[in-house]
Amino acid sequence: MTGPLSGLRVVDVSIMAAGPWIGALLGELGAEVIKIEPPAGDGTRWVEPQQRGMGTNYMCLNVNKRGITLDFKKPEDRALALDLTATADIFIQNFRGGVIERLGLGYDAVAARNPRIVYCSVSGFGEAGPLAKEACADFIMQAYSGFARLNGQPGEEVEAFRFTGFIDLATSIVGTEGILAALLARDFTDKGQKIEVSMLQASLEMQLSRIAEMLGSGVPPRPLGSAAANAAPDRAYMALDSEIFVTASTAAEWAGFCEAIEMPSLLQDPRFETNVARVQNREPLDSLVAPIIAKRPAIWWMRAFQRRKVPCALAHNFEQFRYHAQVRDNSMVAVVQTKDWGDVVVGGLPWQFALTPGVVRPPPVPGADTAAVLEELARRRSNVKIEKSA
Amino acid sequence: MTTRQILAGIRVVEAASGLAGPMAGCRLGDLGATVTKVEWGDGDWTRQCPPFLDDGTSTEFFALNRGKRGVRLAEPTAKSQVLRRLVEQADIFITDLDTAALAEMGLDGVDGDPCSWHENLIVLQISALGRNGPLAGMPGSELTAQAMAGYTRYLGSAGSPSTRLGADVAGMSTGIFATQAALAALFARRRVGRGQRVDLSLLNSLVAMKTVHLAAQTDPDTYEGPRVGGAYDPPERGWKTADAPITFAFGGAVGAEGRPGWTQFVEAVGLKRLLDDSRFDKTGRMTTGLGPKARELKGEYESEFVNKPSAELVAQVRKFGGFASAYLSHEELFREPQVQALNAVRQVPQGQQAVRALDFPVRFSISRAELHGDAPGLGQHTDEVVAELGLTKD
Q: A59, A201, A276: which to substitute to probe chain B, counting the most B Cβ within 10 Å?
């Protein structure tokens, strides 16, 4: 068994990022995923940068899929798509509100042919409310949902997380969570259902701890540079040569921290006795700690904190972490080989299943599997006819 | 007819503190599982995280642990009969105990068997840095995971003090991946007849969530555009207006061309001169959103935007088919009719107090998630649970 979902089939008509990575994750979990693209192509193929002419976004967001091209402007292609959904366990779409119904692939139409299908509909702002039909993008939702209001140096107002598509990816992991729940439900009811995931609710979910603080206390969150809102010390300090990132969340870590910086007196200081006190007295704490850390190199502090089991790290760039033994030994990145565009580095599996491990496989060449998939579909149809006549 | 909850009858035991493990336990509880949280000593460290509800419960601890029963053990690991018996009766064990502690409990068998004595058990082992490798077993945090996965390079600017993502993205994404792992392992268990161990880590989650950058930086044809500038791009704060900054795009989701509305938009907002400016393509694709010329030419748009309120500009972009939003504050966000229409926030009890909590993030047409309140006090249900197990306290 190659993954917990092996034997399941996914039809994915989503484009760009917030939908497609759902299909990729389901593929990594072992499902067979068929990506249907319009003849004009998924826009990620042209998003910069490209590698040997193919958008790198397209490659990483469509791993573990077969690729077919259908023209939804043609009734016969829409009919083929509907036929394909009848063979599938899961369907994924992220058209603007109302479009999928016009294409004849709305939930009612698909479920009428295949009541067991789990139908995942991805939107920007949700499927009800005044913005239901608005399109969205990662950076738009970072602005709308307050995600960008959490970032920046103290006193600054907003800063977006640059260009990782983070909310798109967050939407995809929430969507996958919902699909898996609906698959379990199907085991008991023998019925599929529609699930709705929005970039808005996914972005709120990513902010759950900060939003809980606000909903529970009435105090809105604000940017704190590298510092944590809920614990102290928990930030980057400038060492002699570079920054070191260090966290003391527990009483034991705080004791280790004081020992490492050779300031055992802090442990007796009532201003710093508990985490609550340290958060309240963040500034006096930092004014004592920062000059001490500034005296010695970051590596010295790494050893001092590690010996005392205090979480600490240096910042890595791509070149440093892609070859880091910890990243490699846990397969946190994967290198997939493509015929036309060379090797490409993508994220590794986010879960390591001991019994049913998944695998990361290359993205499709757009449309390359059209003939094969449609032939299989035709064979299935004729088998159905033979069964019926028998 | 009441709908059966998806995880009705599923028993979860959670021996995990912080964000990721408790979040998975909480969301599995929303789907109908019974969750027993096991703590020792002072308990989960998020109990000490400010701010607090009226009754003194940490707002964060509440959000991640509502609906669970709480058991406090005298001892943390294999020596505890209570923990062993709880796990014996569980379907899912969520833990941040290290491999040695799990081995001591007989929960670290080989070849995919999580344990030799309970073949149905699903074990979610959550760590900071992964189960294998030279740093296995070392402690880590939200901050150290963000730094190690290169996240701080895409905030702030090179040479300035680092900025973290204010959202606890390592904890939240690992919580979601752990929930997925539990659901997928339950699905597989019905087919292969066995549980299994699944390993997750904060670092692994953030590296997986960086797939767009990993691919972009592998071997790009040119170093043009936003995804290859690394720490040397300026901070991204949108386009200034008369009030809050906005962000907007006339990008294309289909094909290589952009959306058609850009020319009408620039005319409507008094920027007709851009139509004759050769630095601007006529679709807006290169100069809005994440377009490669967007940052360089931001000032040209801002020259008019600063005279107009953000709401008007956002409405104009949307009118002509583009995407836009102002950078909302959280107070503004929760007043938005859109957020209210989604019912994204629910009220749940904590003792006598009603507390607002984020709903399960997915809407089901048939199934339902049901949010519970009442996060457990430290050891609140110890006696009750120990008696149910037919044991005396450790």
A: A201
ipTM of the complex: 0.98
What pLDDT, in 10s, does the model give residues A206-227?
Answer: 999 999 999 999 999 999 999 9
Which residues of B fall within a CB distance of 8 Å from A347?
Answer: 207-211, 214
Which chain A residue is nearest to residue B62, measuring alpha carbons?
A212
Query: A53 to chain B: nearest residue by CA?
Result: B221
A312's tokens: 């600490």
Alpha helices (runs of H) in chain B, residue ranges in sequence order: 20-30, 59-65, 81-88, 99-104, 142-148, 169-192, 202-208, 211-216, 262-268, 298-305, 310-319, 330-335, 337-341, 382-388
Neighbour count for residue B168 (Cβ, 10 Å): 31
Cα of B277 to nearest chain A Cα, Å: 23
CB contact under 8 A, A206 and B169: yes
C-alpha B293/C-alpha A81 separation (Å) is: 38
Beta bridge partners of A333: A347
A354 and B220 within 8 Å at the Cβ level: the answer is no
Name the residue of chain A whose CA is nearest to B224's CA: A49
Measured over the CA atoms of residue B353, residue B354, residue B359 and residue B360, the dihedral's sign is positive
Q: What is the DSSP letter of A94?
A: -
Confidence (pTM): 0.97
Which residues of A fall within a CB distance of 8 Å from B338?
125-126, 129-131, 200
Percentages of chain B per state (helix, strand, coil), in multiples of 5: 35, 15, 50
**Inter-residue contact B68 to B107 (CB < 8 Å):** no
Read off the DSSP letter of residue A2. Answer: -
